Amino acid sequence: MDFSFRHHIGLIALFKILYVAVAQTNYRNISLGWSLTAFDDSASWRSPSGDFAFGFRRLENQNLYLLSIWFDKIPNQTLVWYANGDNPAPQGSRVELTTDGLFSLTDPGGEVIWMPNSSPVGVVYAAMLDTGNFILANYYSSNVWQSFDDPADTLLPSQVLRVHRNVSARTSENNFTRGRFELRLIPDGNLVLNTIALPTGNAYEAYYWSNTVDAPGGMTGNQLIFNASSGYLYIIKTNGEIVNVTSGNIGQTFPTRDYYHRATVDYDGVLRLYAHPRTSRNGRWDETWSTAWFTPNDICSAMMGERGGGTCGFNTYCSTENDGRPNCQCLPGFSFSDPNNKLKGCEQDAFQKCNLEGLRAEDLYDMHQLNNLQWNNSTQYEELISLTEDQCKSSCLYDCHCFLAVSIEGNCRKKKLPVSNGRRLEGRSDRVFVKVLNSDISSRDPNTILNLGKTNQATFSLVAALLLGSSGFLNLLLVAAILVIVLRSYGGRTKLRKLPSLLDTNLRTFTYVDLKVATKNFKEELGRGSFGTVYKGILQLSGSRILVAIKELYKISQEGEKEFKTEASVIAKIHHKNLVRLIGFCDEESHKLLVFEFMSNGSLARYLFGESRPKWGKRIQFAVEIARGLMYLHDECSTQIIHCDIKPQNILLDDSFTAKISDFGLAKLMISNQSGTLTAIRGTKGYVAPEWFKNTPVTAKVDVFSYGVLLLEIICCRKCTDMERQNEEEVILTEWVYDCYTERTLHKLVEDDEEARSDMRQLEKMVMVAIWCIQEDPNVRPSIKMVLHMLEGVVQVSAPPCVSPSPHGSIS
Question: Where is the Protein kinase domain (predicted)?
């Protein structure tokens, strides 16, 4: 090699080393190989001035930690950024900048909790800057990732918010999971505040707009800047025009040389700009932040959208305090769902019942009147004109569906549950009537009320018959006797027989004859599976006829005979919105039947492989809902449950197309501290994990494998094995998908699905998650909890290893 060339290369290398060394000296950089561990006394990485620190902060009263940035010099050390609000890290977790330039947060077991979402490469150092920005930089000190580009709930001076970046509120003051409110700069140039649907993040109607769209010239705002010298928030349009978003004399009242500033989307949905003294005064700190500006001024009136729970959540009404904070109140007959977070709405204290034989509506309900309240029309299902207030109140009282009626200017607007966006406005002429179960009755068992009605009817029928055929004196005696009977029935009605109710926690038992009658001698078959045949049935429960799905099990083993009742009882206690609910069972000699809630829209397979496939957004929803159900079975039950047969035929859809896992009640139950089980092969061809074919313990990872195959079917809307494919490479779905992934031709998977093709980033993420799930080695596969976090965007999805061919034999 030419000497001069080698000399030149050596100078470049030396320059890089010196450059990095100087940079690290100026900015107190974090070098490759440095790490922090989550403990109460853990160290932090501070900015040169000491204004900000990066490290772990322990959650209040919990042994969990947030990876975060905070103001380090003020007493309350206010958080301004956090990485893992939806997935707090246990004690002993570690954040590390590895010698390979990878930056990640891992739990004590080494599982990744969080990574930067842009997959930075070429990182040679990190730094906590005096602006409050934490950066990952390359050899040339260019930022390859920075916390300013991935905000939590706060913006800091000099920070820029660009289009498609969101600032999301936390759930409550001490709960850092993603909340219902967000700040966005949308492509048309408007800065907006809106509520979102969790967990998907779909945006509802905005309740604040900056009005920064230039309609005549078509120019739109493209960035929001937090000015470091003036303290103002302003938008720079693409034509160079600057539009101030804030108002008032913030820079004069709270000069930046003397005050720290921050702009936060608070958990109540209000965007506030705060100021805090940089130094103590006369040796004393003002430990509170002063509000320099906020919007909207009236959050309750601003929230007028047709969807979502509004400011305070469902079944509430809202009034705005002087500082812009909402004051949330429950409607009569409701209590806060979470007393510690009054923005989560209210739930009904007692369920309403209709058409109770022998009892009048006015005996059951009181109509509570509220004044100066207003609602939007989101839950209005009927409007009656030319009705007086009394007529409006009576109309709601006798309407089984009506929960609340608004009488205004001769119109009567009836609403059903849940109601949203209620607000108190002084001077309104509205009269609101809320139907509430009578206080005397609501304290008693609803089923007792039903018996009471029948008892009263029978009693008074007897009175009438006797009075008609008796003398006056005897009539007096009979009246007295009957009154005693009635009073005793009222006094002792809590001892009356309790009727069956779908709200009971106890599992019902049915006779074989009961279920034979319910199914009309097992006439209408809904489907067959590896465990049994399912029939449609109608049962009389709680005075109502309800549809059910009755599964007649095939002959089970002698050991299964002994465990049947025990397992059914365990499953009956499991309640999750993404699991089909078990209502009861029949156990008579050889007859083993299970009774489930009826799922009106059938199996997922019917929609995935039918003529009209579900829309892309709905398929994403299915994937997340199934993962949630599995996580509940694996991690949140007192007894871990491995399903062993996850496939689209075992995913059922209710009347609102919510995905629910079925047949989990027949899966192998595992004791919580048991790491694995050796058992006979179970499952369905194409979905069976490789370890079933080896003499190795089977863990919950078999479900993760099956879920990965199912996820690919959801993505592509085709079966995992399709022998009718003309191209042999496409017969086995898992192999074809992996080929498309490695060849970067993922568009082939959704060739004629325009909606999916326009969302290639989400498509690639879901494919990568699926490939992680179908790894041959179960130790390489993520847990279903990690899968869910990857799908929801809580953790970054790294490139998966290659997929090895694995056996998928036929399973009986």
Answer: 520-792
Residue 679's pLDDT band, with cuts at 50, 70 and 90, is: very low
User: What region does 372 belong to: left with phi over 0, alpha with psi -120 to 50, or beta?
Assistant: left
Place of tokens 């305090």: 321
- 36-45, 316-325, 457-466, 500-509: segment of lowest average pLDDT: 457-466
Question: Do residues 34 and 97 lie in contact, with contact meaning Cβ atoms separated by under 8 Å?
Answer: yes
% the chain with pLDDT above 70: 79
CATH topology of domain 601-812: Transferase(Phosphotransferase); domain 1 (1.10.510)
- 645 is an active site residue: yes
Structural contact between residues 161 and 167, judged by C-beta atoms closer than 8 angstroms: yes
Give the whole-angstrom CA distance, residue 69 versus residue 44. 9
pLDDT value of residue 446: 43
Is residue 635's pLDDT more than 90?
A: no
The pLDDT value given to residue 464 = 45
* Residue 281: exposure state from Cβ atoms within 10 A (0-12, 13-18, ≥19): exposed
3-state SS class at 71: strand
**Looking at the domain 154-296, which fold is it?**
Agglutinin, subunit A (2.90.10)
- Taken in order 490, 492, 498, 501, the sign of the CA dihedral is positive
Q: What letter would DSSP give residue 732?
A: B
**CATH number of 500-598: 3.30.200.20, 3.10.180.10, 3.40.50.11540, 3.10.310.40?**
3.30.200.20
CB count in 10 Å sphere of residue 477: 11
CA distances from 168 to 123, 176, 207, 304 (A): 28, 10, 15, 20
Dihedral Cα 189, 194, 198, 200, nearest 10 deg: -20
- Rounded-to-integer distance, Cα 510 and Cα 108, Å: 48
pLDDT digits (tens, 9 = 90+) for 62-79: 889 999 999 999 988 999
Q: What's 290-333 look like in SS3?
A: EEEEEECCCHHHHCCCCCCCCCCCCCEEEEECCCCCEEEEECCC
Q: Does domain 22-143 have CATH number 2.60.40.1120?
A: no
The set of residues, in sequence order, having a beta carbon less than 8 Å from that of 345 and lying 6+ positions away, is 309, 312, 313, 314, 315, 316, 336, 337, 418
- Which amino acid is it at 480? A
CA torsion through residues 713, 717, 721, 727, sign: negative
Contact assessment for residue 367 and residue 392, using Cβ atoms and an 8 Å cutoff = no
Q: Is the dihedral of CA 304, 305, 306, 308 positive or negative?
A: negative
CA dist 73 and 80 (Å) reads 13
Question: What was the pLDDT predicted at 559?
Answer: 58
Name the strand (E) or helix (H) holding 693: none
Question: Residues 499, 511: contact at Cβ < 8 Å?
Answer: no
Catalytic residue among 268, 645, 703, 753: 645
Closest of 603, 694, 590 to residue 648, by C-alpha: 603
For residue 604, which of 664, 643, 649, 644 has the smallest C-alpha distance? 649
719 is in an annotated binding site: no
476 DSSP assignment = H
Kind and range of the H or E run holding 337 = none
Letter for the amino acid at 415?
A: K
